[in-house]
Amino acid sequence: MKTLTIIASLFFLTFRLIAQTSLNFDDNGLISGDTYNFQEFQFTEDGNAGAKQVWDFSKIKFTGKTPVGILQSPAIPKMDGIADYNLSLSENGYDYFLNSSVNNLEELGYVNNDLKIVLKYSDPVVKMQYPFSYGNQFTDHFIGVANADRPDKIDFFGDFSVIADAYGTLVLPDRVIENTLRVKSVKTGLQINMCGTADVSITKYNWYAAGYRYPLVNLTINEIHPSIGATQIIKSAFINTQQPHKSISISGNKTLATSATLPSQSLKPDIAVTISPNPFTDKLNYSYFLNEPLKVSIELYSLGGKNISWIVKDQIQPVGLQTGELIAAMYNLTSGVYFIRFTFDKQVVIQKVVKI
Fold this sequence. Notes:
This protein has helices at about 10-20, 25-30, and strands at about 5, 35-40, 50-55, 70, 85-90, 95-100, 105-110, 115-130, 135-150, 155-170, 175-195, 195-210, 215-225, 230-240, 275, 285-290, 295-300, 305-315, 320-325, 335-345, 345-355. It has about 350 residues and is mainly beta. The strands form 3 sheets. A 12-stranded antiparallel β-barrel has the order 2-4-5-6-7-8-9-10-11-12-13-14. A 4-stranded antiparallel β-sheet has the order 18-17-20-21, with no helix packed on it. The chain is elongated.
């Protein structure tokens, strides 16, 4: 029988009440027919857990790979040996067979035709429970059997743990989104075959925000420790570049999350902005070089994404080195973290600055 452990302490409950992002089936459940694009970037650290974090992905470097995820109704006939499922997900060469309901998301098996791997769970994996908020966590036990282009089978069993371990502000190349929920999952298992055993650990971090159905950012660390041979560690990182979202306002004020989609051209800014000193006390200087005349806007935002002021608004600037300064007293800045958004025509660069 499946063992499912649910933990919700009073400490976590307190924070859950003030966190605004919570996953639920209506807003975050998988929808058949959806297609979404990911853009791969060079792996970066996942950051800290806890409340009121800031994750700065504004300077990520893209690899040029753009995988696509496709959700669709189950194939008929369904996969032999896998229990009834109502949804399939094609992603990164894998076809996952899922059961999606208002209460949870369950994985029953998967296939990778290129690697000639078929895995079938006799005790499936619960991937998510709804609703799910900051501090919620659960652990689910799974049992499966895999075949990998050879006659002997691979027994695979272990635990899948999920925790909403942090919330805070997510800084992307073209926007700042507050009240972002980070969900961490860890799949630990033991693979047994005729050649030996292997300990497997797959850690994933997904960032969710209100108005977005699917994760905005994903980091994955895949570790395989065989009883014979070298350890393998594979790291990957993706940003979701094609999903609509709603504008989010704070007390009626404009925030950075205002565009209808995340335009791909804004993800590769070729204008370098220099800011110094950072941290600063009374004044900081900024500079950038324009290779062609462009319309430039510069905006100052609080840590929570509130627009404080325009520094430059819709100004046509000539070719050459451009410089400016930000004087803290002019904007009544107190000690803390701020963001400066530079818009060069359709290119966006966001810089995090610290006032001390």
